Amino acid sequence: MYKLAGEERFLLWAVCSIQLQVLCDKSGEKLLLLAEGLLKKHIASHSMHEPEALMVYISLLEQQSKYNDALQVLSGNLGSLLVIEVDKLRIQGRLLARARDYSAAVDVYKKILELSPDDWECFLQYLGCLFEDDSVWKLFDDTDQIHPIKNIECKFSHLTEEMFDSRISSASELVQKLQRDTENSNLRGPHLAAIEIEKRKFLYGKKNESELLKSLLQYFLKFGHLACYASDVEAFLQVLPPHKKAEFVGMLVKNADSVSESATVVLGQTTTILKVQELTGNIFELPLGEIEASTVKLAKLYCQNLPLSKDLDPQESMFGEELLSLISNMLVQLFWRTRDFCYLAEAIMVLEFGLSIRGHVWQYKILLLHIYSYIGALPLAFQRYKALDVKNILTETVSHHILRQMLESPMWVDLSNLLQDYLKFMDDHLKESADLTFLAYRHRNYSKVIEFVLFKQRLQQSNQYEAVRVEASLLQLKQSADSIEEEERVLENLKSGVQLVELSNEMGSRTLRFNEDMETRPWWTPCPEKNYLLGSFEDFSYCPKENVNKDREENVRRAIQRKSLVPRMIYLSIQCSATALKESLETNGSGGDIKTCVELKSLLEEYTKTLGSSLSDAVDMITEISQGARPSESLGSDLVDWLNFAVFWNAWSLSSQEHWHVLNLLFEKLILDRIKSMGSSDMSSCYSDVQVLVQIITEPLAWHGLVIQACTRSSLPSGKKKKKAQHSDHLPSSPMSQAIKDSIHSLCSTVQEVSNWLLNQINNPEDDQVEKFLSTLKRNEDAGGPGQVLGVLESFITSSEESEVGSRIFEALKTWSKEDSARKTVMAQQSVLREFLQICESKKKLLEKLKQQMSHV
Amino acid sequence: MVCIRRATVDDLLAMQACNLMCLPENYQMKYYLYHILSWPQLLYVAEDYNGRIVGYVLAKMEEESNECHGHITSLAVLRTHRKLGLATKLMTAAQAAMEQVYGAEYVSLHVRRSNRAAFNLYTETLGYQINDVEAKYYADGEDAYDMRKNLKGKQIHQHHSAGHAHHHHGGGCCSADAKPVETTTQAEATSSK
């Protein structure tokens, strides 16, 4: 087309396509040379007219590491296509740095800083060039996380002390100049730069801790009242040893008291100090009494300052809004350390109270979501999640808050919607991306074409996308497992699980991207797989949120690998079972069945590999656990997956009565252990056990139910499978039919135990439960302990006046009721239990039916 | 303040996360993409120290009655980063790009009648004037002020060879089919407190 029309845009299409090919395949770099040649020729004959074309040309040269050529282009005539001066300087600085012409790059960055003294990225690049250290580029090249890593590596080893000193002092001079130039503008950048310089000295080994602390304190005195202080200094705090962090907190407390000028400053600084304590982990080292006192103090501060927000628009942030999140975080910690449920109930009350005053605060919703999830009030958790209005790309970045809990719950309708909404967004986006790519071409925004295609790839490679696709299939299988005919239809739609097996095979070599925004998660669950509240405080070691995704990658990959084998294994198990009973009487099986068995065995091997074990070790493991020779705890958090394995292993070797026996014992043991440990305690303290039970009943037990259904169906006298009546005459003598009967019997009584436990909980009158919930919040007037924060809030509600807090807040205070919150929580817990009971009842019905069918044979 | 820079496509993830923390938005993802792929020069983000996106402005070009003008579609700043002048910086950057890159004659925007903080920012700090009131503009029935500011800026690409028509208007500024749903504008009340 370029040849025909001679238009620049057609040429640039071609060039962009080449660039993309090289970027995505990481090969064919010679093509870049071709593209460069095409552009050069075009420039020679037609020059170049569009800024975007110039950007493509420069990036093409950059891609080939021809930095000096790119610099020449930029400083030549074509450079004038870029109209915004700072943009041009930024490109120039980057090219010089990459060409390792550091001294020239330093000059360019200085120029940018003089034009825009608050440009932090530029300041870091300036330092990078000054110290001839290219690690800063890694920071900006790393696009895999929504929020870039905070700690930049610094390399100094190539510098002598003298070189370091002279360079750091020239950086100091620049920063001082920037500070003088911006004295009246309240910019944070130049002041933060001063801390960065102290940090670099510290990392170099200058033993300047006290200067570093002093600079952080200076910054606090200037900006400590701002909500952004804590996140501004986070990266600096991370380099300090623990005792210095504690010392710093002490300095803040001491200095904050001496500068109390206005209510908003005091409020801001107090909030900041608490946030710094959270960031440094210092808060976890305080004695219980101190934390408790702190929560009470903050609650009072919140109430005192409510009048400040009297005239604010409803969409504006309130003064002291963050205090309630901080209080709640401390209450959750108190619960963790004391296991006194009251603290958790109080945290719920504090956040619900906050939401009734300011309905939009996302932090409150997220914290509530996680507390409700922890105590099994899942419908409320889901409601809070929906109130976040998660849609579009947020489904990719935010749904991790609720997804895992829903997957492990009996709330299948909501779960199905959640999965479908997510898949619809991703699928639609991927479908639309061709049009969007064309849109960018049409507007001749070539650099955006490349960015967009890479972005599309980023979404396509999302770990969550892969996982949800597998989970959506599994959910359908779970939902239909009580009827083998329905299950077979689902399996047929899933191509008998073949595609998912392929996915599993490819998983090892696939790139997985992690687009989830984990920073919004509460401290006690930094990623979906972790929840500190499930362990004890003593085992806790402070771990920053930073590398969460790195740790997750291997686990997530294995989990997807493992789960995507399940549909095929279900299919094969049904196939094996369909003929097993018959074959237990007739000696020679057909060749097809051998093939099925061989495939199932190889999948079992794959499956155990993802559990970190060989097939024979895995068999030993489950056998020993069933016999009580090994504790069931050795299965760890993969307990459900191990049970799945046991089910499919039995399906592969149905003729062995011993295997049936091992499986029955396993189910019995793992389920009854849980019921025993839950005892009569209520849902709030044992929901994690309920979650495990839900999974056992809806996954391995359901799959085993299918195996039995398949066996039984084949034995029916007038079944669809063309079984002749005479077969059934022989069946009673088969040891296998006895094994099936025993298994049905065993499952029946085990599921009955679960139902009994659930009924026991459900039959507890709602009013009694609400009363119990509320009674935990009553406190002894004189003694400390839980309930004090709620006390502060309640007495404020009774004493507040409309003239003081304004009509909107006054109304909210009067309508809030702790009884309502308690009742809603109890009802939500009950509804989860009822959903689960329904599933158990349906399983029981199925088993009864099977029992009857077997009694005829 | 902080680093005000052009948005990249990857920034969309963090930009939408801003919405979670500010006010819910009704924009489809493709509407964002439609902006960034059509007028990439008009999307700016405020990147805080640590590389965190703490605010953004989304804008586009429109051609009506032969006057090519810009339109601010959305402006958001995280609650934790308000009252720092970020909204002003973002708006100034987008307006400058409209003027310098696209030669816009004026810039328009919609704001909720009740959003006093944003209204003050537009009138007092940025010099916008009410052009009209659009009744029931928002989905919830609230009226919007249609506000404008004249740019009277430079000619488009003065340094370009004469007669070389600017490409961006070739297919019409807003020829794609994505539809605006609502302009959510939030800003720090720089002057009211």
Automatic annotation (TrEMBL), chain A:
Taxonomic path: Eukaryota, Viridiplantae, Streptophyta, Embryophyta, Tracheophyta
Signal peptide: none
InterPro entries documented for this protein: NAA25_NatB_aux_su, TPR-like_helical_dom_sf, TPR_rpt
Keywords: Coiled coil, TPR repeat
TPR repeat start-end pairs: 86-119
GO cellular component: NatB complex
Pfam families recorded: NatB_MDM20
Entry annotated with the keyword Nucleotide-binding: no
Family according to the record: Belongs to the MDM20/NAA25 family.
PANTHER family hit by this protein: N-ALPHA-ACETYLTRANSFERASE 25, NATB AUXILIARY SUBUNIT (PTHR22767:SF3), N-TERMINAL ACETYLTRANSFERASE-RELATED (PTHR22767)
Coiled-coil intervals, chain numbering: 467-497
Name of this chain's protein: N-terminal acetyltransferase B complex auxiliary subunit NAA25 isoform X2
UniProtKB/TrEMBL annotation, chain B:
GO molecular function: protein N-terminal-serine acetyltransferase activity; protein-N-terminal-glutamate acetyltransferase activity
N-acetyltransferase domain mapped to chain residues: 2-152
GO CC term (a single one): NatA complex
SUPFAM superfamilies for this protein: Acyl-CoA N-acyltransferases (Nat)
Chain residue ranges for the region called Disordered: 153-178
Entry keyword set: Acyltransferase, Transferase
Listed Basic residues bias regions: 153-170
Family designation: Belongs to the acetyltransferase family. ARD1 subfamily.
Listed name of the protein: N-terminal acetyltransferase A complex catalytic subunit NAA10
Organism: Raphanus sativus (Radish)
